[in-house]
Fold Peroxisomal hydratase-dehydrogenase-epimerase.
Amino acid sequence: QTLGSVNEKFSKTDENLRRLYIMSELRYDGQTVVVTGAGGGLGKAYATFYGSRGANVVVNDLGGSFKGEGKSTKAADVVVEEIKAAGGKAVANYDSVEDGEKIIETAIKAFGRIDILINNAGILRDISFKNMTDADWDLIYKVHVKGPYKCARAAWPYFRKQKYGRVINTASAAGLFGSFGQTNYSAAKLSQVGFTETLAKEGFKYNILCNVIAPIAASRMTETVMPPEVLELLKPDFVVPLVGVLTHSSNKHETGSIFEVGGGHIAKIRWQRAKGGLLKTGPSMTPGAVLKIWDNVKDYSKPSYPEGPADFMGLLEEAQKLPDNQP
Ligand code: NAD
């Protein structure tokens, strides 16, 4: 349907309603979506959403426990059947995201293309840092860092060639803010912010838009740490609409952004730089000189919002123009 036909339905004063109406009609016909870890939780919600809106869906899931033990084809198969029963198109893939190229190959073999990649698969190996083993650390790294890399790396040549791609990576509040007992997970999840921001910069001229979400949702990952009445407010379905908007072809500019999303709340998150203090570099840049400007270093009353390494370079020149620091 055209924008004109939508306009006929709503008067100009109903701008918000008109927008909502257009959004509710977002479709993905003819596009192929890969959702990793789509056998349950958030991944299942994404997969069934895209399946119900015309996309070809690759339902990837290793089918192991939430700690990353074992595997099974059942998790992915059940979701594929559900999508098909509702009239959608879907195929299963049972590989670990560590073998991302096999997952993308499934998309190409089954549907001949890949348009949207949702890097969602995840596990937990929560343990205090004192008791952390290399195995706990490495497994989290493999699933949450190497997996998204392998999937994106395999999809990238297709995205570039067709000058179209939409990627969602999955971070976590644990990565943004830290979380007791989750050093491995926090480190891996924050990596997705840097990964996404650089992918966004490299991809933009090829119309490849990449965003990262820090979701909160009821799933087997969270069901043991939150009470049932809270879980009820946090259905994975409430994360899906944002992902639907960001990965739709009507999104032409939103890229390299971090979103907090869950339970009806959606907000962008960004880095904030305090006022800061400048010191002349050289012998007079002593710890005592740092203490003299300490209040400015932590003064957030007039923040700035740096967006890249170049934002810092200008400050270097300014620092050079300063007189020597007073002892
Ligand atoms: P979930 O356990 O329900 O879903 C994760 C899925 O990934 C599972 O079906 C699992 O079998 C699959 N999986 C695990 N390892 C895999 C691998 N190597 N290859 C392929 N599939 C694999 O959990 P969820 O809550 O839906 O989590 C989805 C994503 O969201 C994860 O990346 C998680 O870290 C992140 N996340 C979730 C929350 C939350 O509140 N639920 C919060 C922050 C981040």
The first strand starts at residue 32 and ends at 35. The pocket of nicotinamide-adenine-dinucleotide is lined by residues 36-37, 39-43, 60-64, 66, 68, 75, 96-97, 120-123, 143, 147, 170, 172, 215-217, 219-222 (CB under 6 Å).
